[in-house]
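Sequence only, no structure available. Ideas?
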Amino acid sequence: MKEHAIERAEVFVVGPDVERYTWADGMSGQYMANIVLRLTAASGLEGIAGAAMITPHGFDRATGETLRHILPDIIGRHPGERESLWLKLRNLGTPMVPQAHSLIDIALWDMAARHARLPLYQLLGGARDKVLSYASTPLLADNQAYIDYVGERRREGFKAVKFHCWCVPERDLPMCEAVAKHFHGQDLALMLDVEQRYDRIGAVKVARRLSELGFRWFEAPLLDTDIEGYCELRRRSTVPVIAAGNTWLDLQALAQAAKAGAWSALRVDATICGGITPLRKVMGLAEALGMDVEIQCWGYTLTQAANLHMMLAYANCTYFEQPVPYPAFEYGAQDVIRTDAQGYVHAPPGQGLGIGIDWKAIEAAAILRFEVRRP
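Reply:
I predicted one. Tokens follow.
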């Protein structure tokens, strides 16, 4: 594979002018930078990846600047060295922005799948070609707004909805009750995500009521690091409980927390946990423990695509997280991922990640751009 040695790496930190959303009471509209990496080999073979960095007040450049200092070690290597490069990058002495490591690994997998002329999910195993999705909402105005919003998503075909909300038990619970009552008997799965903002007392109170309402899961009620609190919550309620998924990124730490009984399913994101290479290990760990991995997909289309391919490659994930409304998450993508009228998302049809990029749009909205070349 010498002809596929990487000769050039291009980084774009993209800050598009799109609608911004919030996920909790008191949160300002969030700026979501799209960090896009393109690797090009001597043969012309390319690999791309994208990851989101979400911050208040303005777009963050940290992931791009981190890549500036580690991409020189990728130049001259080839996509067949994914495990070797992942092991090299996972310990550089001090922790780095996790999206940087993830982008490199995902772009290498994209290159490998393109070289094999396969969609990435088929190269990884190809367990299926579609998966149910849930609409992942922003914070809305009031209970009626949630009822109306869920009704719109139902008419589009969604069979599941996850609420981002005020993250205040006294407001969240009445909203959940109102929506559950309105759509009772309509075969609709409901989830609640409270962004790690409850205390243990509030979490137990809400969890018990969500159990009675038949919620599919309760997400991030406590800080992900509060393993004892999660274990207690699961002992005192029956609703499935999962973490936020942005803190526990190490395989051994995930194994310890899972064996302690902290969560009903694991939760990670390929663009944050280090890429496809470590996420494959997490999927195997969960399968060995008889657990699912409810993978995150919040971000632009390239972020969604990397995670969707993992869901399609393995059988132990039940839902794709579909960020809505669609347009804000599709900037710069020629191919998009949307839920069909039966509530499913399908594998992108192309090779690799299968997402065509509008490079003119990416360049137009880039707030940081640079490249690293082979000498």
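The mean pLDDT is 96.
Hope that gets you unstuck.
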